[in-house]
C-alpha cells in the first residue's frame, strides 16, 4: 500500500512495497533545503524494519552534491542492516551528477521502478559499493 511519508511545498516523498522492495518515490528538487527530509524518511523506514530500497528519482528535476552525501550516508546505514539499494533515474542529467561525484559505479541504476523491482532482493544488493566483497 502506497503511503505519503513527507510532504512540503518543495518536495513530496511516498513509499510503496513491491516484490520485497521499499520503493521511495521522490518528487521535487533534492538540494540543501530538502536532502535532510529524505535522510530522515529512509532512517524511519529502516527503524520500521525495511531493508531493501529503490530510490525512485524519476520525478526529480534537480539534485546537487549535498544530496549525493545523503545517499552515501544512507547507503552506509542500509549496508549495516544487510540491505540493498537501487536507484531509478531516467534523466541523463541525474546520472551525470552521480558520475561527477564518483558514484556511478557504486550503485545499480534502473530506468523505472518496475525494472528495479522485477526481481526480489538478493543478498549482494550493494556488491558494487566500495569495500564490498564481490
Automatic annotation (TrEMBL):
<dbReference type="InterPro" id="IPR003658">
    <property type="entry name" value="Anti-sigma_ant"/>
</dbReference>
<dbReference type="GO" id="GO:0043856">
    <property type="term" value="F:anti-sigma factor antagonist activity"/>
</dbReference>
<protein>
    <recommendedName>
        <fullName>Anti-sigma factor antagonist</fullName>
    </recommendedName>
</protein>
<dbReference type="InterPro" id="IPR036513">
    <property type="entry name" value="STAS_dom_sf"/>
</dbReference>
<comment type="similarity">
    <text>Belongs to the anti-sigma-factor antagonist family.</text>
</comment>
<feature type="domain" description="STAS">
    <location>
        <begin position="11"/>
        <end position="120"/>
    </location>
</feature>
<dbReference type="InterPro" id="IPR002645">
    <property type="entry name" value="STAS_dom"/>
</dbReference>
<dbReference type="Pfam" id="PF01740">
    <property type="entry name" value="STAS"/>
</dbReference>
